[in-house]
């Protein structure tokens, strides 16, 4: 751009001087024509000389007129004004008496040429100055930060040889560092791919381990359960009590094994969600059938809301999450009420299970989703809510609890991007207070 600007400035100066020269030649030609017209009707040399002298007086820039005749000597008429050496213009004009040569003072033309040259030089100087100023600003605003970044990267990659490379060309040094960064990124990608491969192998190995452990433990438990079921204690009350205790212990041991295996599968990353389109009523049917026996035994009234809400999720995992939360609420609310609802919030689906049971203390709420945290009055080993949290994490959602001692609890789970179809025109929030 600087070279183009200099060329444009030089071209502008040349055009200016060329225009000044053309203008001076045009003025001199007009004056020569006027002088030639003054001698058109003269009859002798004296009359011609007088006419030329008078014409020169009226034409200030023209200093001398020379009439070149074929049959006579040249007739020279001088105005008496001195001509600067090398600063005059010669114009030839044909007349009836011969060829007329006029000599015009070109001092003004020379001054205009000098002024044009100075203007061009000043313009070029300004362009060069602006270029230097812009380059200095560019170095300060762009190249200096890039150089500092290059030096920092060089110190990080080569702490021992960074000082030895100070004299290298900056662009070459930056190119070299970029090549090293590309190579470092390639090694990082390769390391990440290897780590991912190792992780997948670990998941597969853990999955096989969990399956093998489950099989090895489940078979003896099932055999023991069959053995206990076949025992006939007769009329001995002590034997009946021991047999009942054995059956209860086997049941709890089976639940503990199932819970541990479920947590192991989730922690190993062996569970992959398979989402499909469904409506909440499909989940409610299976959840109701799985909980109705316990609810009837404990006298709990379970109500279901939001069965028409469509959602896109894994039915098995979501159903398991629903079952664990509802079972927890039923066990916490003997002879009470439980409200189960699925509702939409924008593009999210929110599952809420509310009970009017004894509620939870603040300290218990902080660790209710941890392993082996047993709620008051609950049988088992405290793994149900820990597995529920892992299910929510696997489905990409959040889970939480809001409770007040003596006023019941609200367990909720929310999943972004699970809702299907456009959002409802009105809010789909449930009327909790009227339901209770």
UniProtKB/TrEMBL annotation:
Domain of life according to the entry: Bacteria
EC code(s) of this entry: 2.7.13.3
GO molecular function, one term: ATP binding
Top enzyme category: transferase
Keyword hit for Chloroplast: no
Keyword Membrane belongs to the record: yes
Membrane-traversing stretches: 114-134
SMART domains: HATPase_c, HisKA
PANTHER family: SENSOR HISTIDINE KINASE GLRK, TWO-COMPONENT HISTIDINE KINASE
Protein name: histidine kinase
The organism of origin for this protein: Luteibacter yeojuensis
């Amino acid at each position: 751009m600087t070279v183009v600007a200099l060329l444009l400035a030089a071209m502008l100066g040349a055009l200016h001087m060329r225009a000044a020269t053309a203008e001076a030649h045009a003025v001199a030609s007009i004056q020569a024509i006027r002088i030639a017209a003054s001698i058109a009707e003269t009859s002798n040399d004296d009359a011609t000389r007088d006419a030329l002298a008078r014409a020169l007086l009226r034409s200030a820039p023209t200093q001398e007129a020379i009439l070149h005749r074929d049959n006579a000597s040249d007739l020279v008429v001088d105005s008496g004004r001195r001509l600067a050496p090398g600063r005059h213009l010669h114009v030839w004009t044909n007349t009836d008496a011969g060829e007329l040569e006029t000599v015009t003072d070109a001092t003004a033309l020379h001054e205009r040429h000098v002024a044009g040259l100075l203007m061009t030089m000043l313009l070029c100087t300004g362009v060069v100055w602006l270029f230097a100023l812009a380059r200095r600003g560019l170095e300060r605003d762009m190249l200096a930060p890039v150089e500092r970044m290059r030096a920092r990267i060089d110190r990080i990659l080569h702490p021992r040889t960074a000082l030895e490379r100070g004299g290298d060309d900056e662009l070459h040094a930056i190119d070299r560092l970029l090549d090293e960064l590309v190579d470092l990124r390639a090694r990082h990608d390769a390391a990440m791919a290897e780590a991912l491969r190792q992780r997948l192998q670990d998941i597969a190995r853990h999955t096989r381990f969990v399956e093998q452990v489950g099989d090895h433990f489940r078979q003896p438990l099932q055999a023991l359960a069959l053995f206990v079921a076949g025992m006939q204690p007769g009329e001995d009350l002590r034997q009946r009590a021991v047999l009942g205790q054995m059956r209860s212990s086997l049941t709890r041991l089976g639940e503990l094994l199932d819970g541990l295996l479920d947590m192991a599968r989730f922690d190993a990353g062996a569970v992959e969600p398979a989402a499909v389109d469904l409506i909440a009523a499909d989940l409610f049917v299976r959840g109701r059938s799985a909980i109705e026996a316990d609810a009837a035994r404990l006298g709990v009234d379970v109500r279901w809301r939001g069965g028409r809400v469509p959602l896109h999720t894994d039915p098995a995992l979501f159903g398991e999450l629903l079952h664990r939360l509802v079972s927890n609420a039923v066990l916490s609310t003997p002879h009470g009420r439980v409200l189960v609802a699925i509702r939409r919030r924008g593009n999210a689906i929110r599952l809420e299970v509310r009970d009017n049971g004894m509620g939870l203390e603040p300290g218990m709420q902080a660790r209710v989703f941890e392993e082996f945290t047993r709620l008051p009055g609950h049988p088992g080993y405290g793994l149900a809510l820990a597995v529920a949290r892992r299910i929510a994490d696997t489905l990409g959602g959040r889970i939480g609890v809001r409770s007040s001692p003596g006023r019941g609890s609200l367990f909720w789970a929310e999943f972004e991007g699970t809702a299907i179809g456009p959002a409802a025109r009105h809010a789909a929030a449930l009327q909790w207070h009227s339901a209770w």
